[in-house]
TrEMBL record:
Name of the molecule in the record: Multidrug transporter MatE
Protein source organism: Streptomyces vietnamensis
Similarity annotation: Belongs to the multi antimicrobial extrusion (MATE) (TC 2.A.66.1) family.
UniProt entry keywords in alphabetical sequence: Cell membrane, Membrane, Transmembrane, Transmembrane helix, Transport
Membrane topology: Multi-pass membrane protein
Amino acid sequence: MTQAPVTSKAVRRQHDREILSLALPAFGALVAEPLFLMVDSAIVGHLGTPQLAGLAIAAALLSTAVSVFVFLAYATTAAVARRVGAGDLPAAIRQGMDGIWLALLLGAAVVALTLPTAPWLVDVFGASDTAAPYAVTYLRISGLGIPAMLVVLAATGVLRGLQDTRTPLYVAIAGFAANGALNLGLVYGAGLGIAGSAWGTVIAQCGMAAAYLVVVVRGARRHGASLRPDPAGIRASAQAGVPLLVRTLSLRAVLMIATAVAARLGDAEVAAHQIILSLWSLMAFALDAIAIAGQAIIGRYLGADDADGARQVCRRMVQWGALSGVVLGALLIVTRPLFVPLFTGDTTVQDTLLPALLVVAVSQPISGVVFVLDGVLMGAGDGPYLAWAMLLTLAVFAPVALLVPTLGGGLTALWWAMTLMMTVRMGTLWFRMRSGRWIVTGATR
């Protein structure tokens, strides 16, 4: 009896199962991360306004420092997934260990810079005299946890490359629970104040890093992979991460320019902008989960020398991204009467917010495609192209955004500029996807 040929519908179902099995746990882990800061803010907020202001400044500095190194997760995911696709698990884990060693080295360097410069950094951020001591205390203590935070990034990349997004979800949930309990115990039980909050976060982050290392080390021993640092491998991991670092810094520059322009428009505009940016970031978590699935799946297909499979799953993920964007945009429009009053009761801010929010909703399908193609090209190890594409996007966006106040535009005009930015990104990524030049098969790119 001959086997029936696999239909295109069956292939799509297979791709859908793969995408969902990776994206849903990834989304849960992504959402858990910002909850750390929310818990810290809720607990420290009851100590007083200066303490909360100090936490806000220190947390902004820490999140910036850590987010710059997000390439540790992205580059490691792609490299490990390729080795998995090639059927070489020992080399995949060895590749992941190189990323973890790089994270430790970078973390140590950041700590060495942060501790002595903490007062200066806090001052640059414009902390008041009453908030500055608390900000310095929190920054210096929490800074000790930066190596653990970077190890978490790299180890998350290892597990994603191994097609495992469930373990990061479990670790994130456990870390969130531990962080909350430790903060309560140390801030109020031990009477350590804001220092207790910082120590609680450090301990929780170290616990998460330890949990990841246990999983990775067990895998290394099971498959006979070396755990010792390999200078050549660490150097290769760093080189792969440089283009993604450029991409991340360029994207950060876009967001900083947008906030600076909003601040020039007025208090109501910058307040509304902050609300929209928070919502935009929340929706980005959902879209980024699909991108993470793309990184892992595309890397595996290319490592297995399956160029056709990579093309097919890429097309399917683009459809997922666009559809997810449509759904998120529709939800934003339908639910805006419910959530807008939760953010602000100021009618001026609300009136400024609503038209700009509609622009964000309309642009969500574009964002969905951008996030997915970003993940596809990361999974393919196409970092240099992503860096140049993001630099081009920044060059287009910056003058347009800076002209908004000059031409008398308001917040809605600024978010049309943000939509232009996403459209340029989509154009550059779509061009690369259609060219096929991202398709380089084999265990290494």
